[in-house]
Structure formats: structure tokens, C-alpha cells
Amino acid sequence: METVGIALLGVGTIGSAVLRMIREERERIAERTGLFLDVRWGLARHRERVVQAGLSERAATTSIEPILADPSVQVVVEVLGGEEPAAAYMKRALEAGKHVVTANKEALSKHFAELVAAAREHQRALLFEASVGAGIPLMVSLRQLLTTNRLHRIRGIVNGTTNFILTLMAEEGVPYQEALRQAQELGYAEPDPTADVEGYDAAYKLSILASLAAGRHIRPEVVERRGITTVTPDQILDARTRGGAMKLLAEAELADETWRLRVRPVFVPASDLLAHVRLNLNAIELTGDRVGTIVLYGPGAGPSPTASAVIADVLDAVRFGPALLPNLEPAT
């Protein structure tokens, strides 16, 4: 039995869920994999938050330094969110010889090539299944597809918050602000919902997916982005009358060797599978030259699905190391 030392950067909703799931499942995981997961450190702005999450005072830190200096830490799990200090912490962890697992789409989409290069230089894993689609096995599917396919289209619903809001507006006639309030009460939307409703979150996720398909870093700034705040009740009603639905779609398409990335609310007819994706669920279409179009569907948000993906990545990081790193050139 091998013990895997883990440092958890962030003990908020997702970090606490990861810690809780490790405690509940570690015996079963050990039986199945021969790996015993042991969370050695928890990092937060205040040590009290780490203790409240269930770790000891000795395991609590407000600094990355003791984590980087601890040889018993094999995997750093980054669930801080936001660009910084998350991106800097991930790079330093890789340079210190730690595997890195992240659920952070913003930091990854903005620093993807840099982080992959650091992981490759130091022969460490960088895994990010939970960054797009939470519990949907999207990255593992992409890795498999890209071995034999050239992807030329990515299309889907990748933001559960906006899909929830649009579903309530369409099916129950709920006004936008009330639908947003309900999303916030259920924990689907942040107190400041800008990243979701203005399409930034979807743009970060699309950037990651398109970068993997292209084999080079496509930065989120190049995504043509429009959120759902411009969607009117008349548009919602018209879509429903026509048998379809308004959806915030993330689309990346390859034409003449150039990728075009767009996030925007559009009418989706009833004949399209994406029209029937409700509430906070996600669905992503991947189209390759050999396999055709496949659709991946499931919970795209939430603490439990995200924690499940994070822990699976921790196990893969230890078992496979840098073997799962994508080929990714810097942005041009």
C-alpha cells in the first residue's frame, strides 16, 4: 500500500467536498488502487478555515512555502479559483516536483501553455478534469479521441448557472432576476454572477477545450463573447412557441486551419439534443474526422461531481505522472 500525500489549496465549497470525499471513500479507494490518500496540508487565507474544514491546526497554513518544502506531499490540489495566486502556486508546485490537479478554469485557460511546459520540464502531472464539465469524463474522452481523430468542432452547454436561469425563464415564466436569485440560493451562482451570466466562465472552458483540440494555447481573450443578460422575455417566449429553446452555447469551429470561438445565446430547435438539456446540466458535442459527433452529458457543476473528478485526477497523477500531459504549443 502506497500513501499519497496531498496538499489542498483552498478549503471552500469544492475543497471541503474533496476533503470529505477522501475521508468517506479512502478505504474503498485503497482497496481498489493500492493508494491511500492522506491530506497533509490545507491552505487558506485564515488558518481557522482549514480547521473548520476538518484538518488539524498543524495541517493549516496561510503560505505555500511549507507545502513546497514538504517531501511527503506528492500531489497539490488547487481549488482556490481565480487567476492569481492560483496560477503562480501551480507553477511553483510543479517546479518543486509536485504533481498538480486543478479545477480552476480561469487560471488554466490563461496560463495553459506555461503550466504544461513547467509540468513537462519537471516531469510531473498536470490534470484538470474538473475544470470543464465537473463530473463529466470530458478530458479523458478528449485524450482518447485526439489519438486517432482531428477534431474540427466543439459545441455545447458548459455553464450550468445560465442554463438553469434560462430553463426557469422558459418553463415557469420566471423573470431573469428571480431566476438568478434562485440560482444563487441553490449555490449554482456566486453572489457576483458576472462570470457566469456575461459568458466569461463559458469562454474560459471553451478556451481549454479548443486549445486541446488545436494543440496550441488559444487564449480566452479571442473568444467572441456575449452573455444572457441581453436575452429578453419575448425571445424566450418565441423560442418556446417554435418548439425550441434559448441556450448559451459555446462553439469552436475549425475552418481554413483557423479556429473561431464563440459564446452567445442562440435559438436551438427541438430537433437538436442541446435544446433538451435542462437546469444546471451540461452537454458537449465533439466532432472528429473519424468518429463523427459524440455527445457527453451530465452534471457540469456542484461540489460532489467536481470532487469526484478531482480525486480521480489525483489517482491518475500518481499512477501515470507526465504521461497524460497534452501536446500544447504556446499561443501565437
TrEMBL record:
<keyword id="KW-0521">NADP</keyword>
<dbReference type="GO" id="GO:0009086">
    <property type="term" value="P:methionine biosynthetic process"/>
</dbReference>
<dbReference type="InterPro" id="IPR036291">
    <property type="entry name" value="NAD(P)-bd_dom_sf"/>
</dbReference>
<keyword id="KW-0028">Amino-acid biosynthesis</keyword>
<dbReference type="InterPro" id="IPR022697">
    <property type="entry name" value="HDH_short"/>
</dbReference>
<dbReference type="InterPro" id="IPR005106">
    <property type="entry name" value="Asp/hSer_DH_NAD-bd"/>
</dbReference>
<dbReference type="InterPro" id="IPR001342">
    <property type="entry name" value="HDH_cat"/>
</dbReference>
<feature type="binding site">
    <location>
        <position position="105"/>
    </location>
    <ligand>
        <name>NADPH</name>
    </ligand>
</feature>
<dbReference type="GO" id="GO:0050661">
    <property type="term" value="F:NADP binding"/>
</dbReference>
<feature type="domain" description="Homoserine dehydrogenase catalytic">
    <location>
        <begin position="137"/>
        <end position="315"/>
    </location>
</feature>
<keyword id="KW-0560">Oxidoreductase</keyword>
<dbReference type="Pfam" id="PF03447">
    <property type="entry name" value="NAD_binding_3"/>
</dbReference>
<comment type="pathway">
    <text>Amino-acid biosynthesis; L-methionine biosynthesis via de novo pathway; L-homoserine from L-aspartate: step 3/3.</text>
</comment>
<dbReference type="Pfam" id="PF00742">
    <property type="entry name" value="Homoserine_dh"/>
</dbReference>
<feature type="domain" description="Aspartate/homoserine dehydrogenase NAD-binding">
    <location>
        <begin position="10"/>
        <end position="129"/>
    </location>
</feature>
<keyword id="KW-0791">Threonine biosynthesis</keyword>
<protein>
    <recommendedName>
        <fullName>Homoserine dehydrogenase</fullName>
        <ecNumber>1.1.1.3</ecNumber>
    </recommendedName>
</protein>
<dbReference type="GO" id="GO:0009088">
    <property type="term" value="P:threonine biosynthetic process"/>
</dbReference>
<keyword id="KW-0486">Methionine biosynthesis</keyword>
<dbReference type="GO" id="GO:0004412">
    <property type="term" value="F:homoserine dehydrogenase activity"/>
</dbReference>
<feature type="binding site">
    <location>
        <begin position="10"/>
        <end position="15"/>
    </location>
    <ligand>
        <name>NADP(+)</name>
    </ligand>
</feature>
<feature type="active site" description="Proton donor">
    <location>
        <position position="205"/>
    </location>
</feature>
<comment type="similarity">
    <text>Belongs to the homoserine dehydrogenase family.</text>
</comment>
<comment type="pathway">
    <text>Amino-acid biosynthesis; L-threonine biosynthesis; L-threonine from L-aspartate: step 3/5.</text>
</comment>
<dbReference type="InterPro" id="IPR019811">
    <property type="entry name" value="HDH_CS"/>
</dbReference>
<feature type="binding site">
    <location>
        <position position="190"/>
    </location>
    <ligand>
        <name>L-homoserine</name>
    </ligand>
</feature>
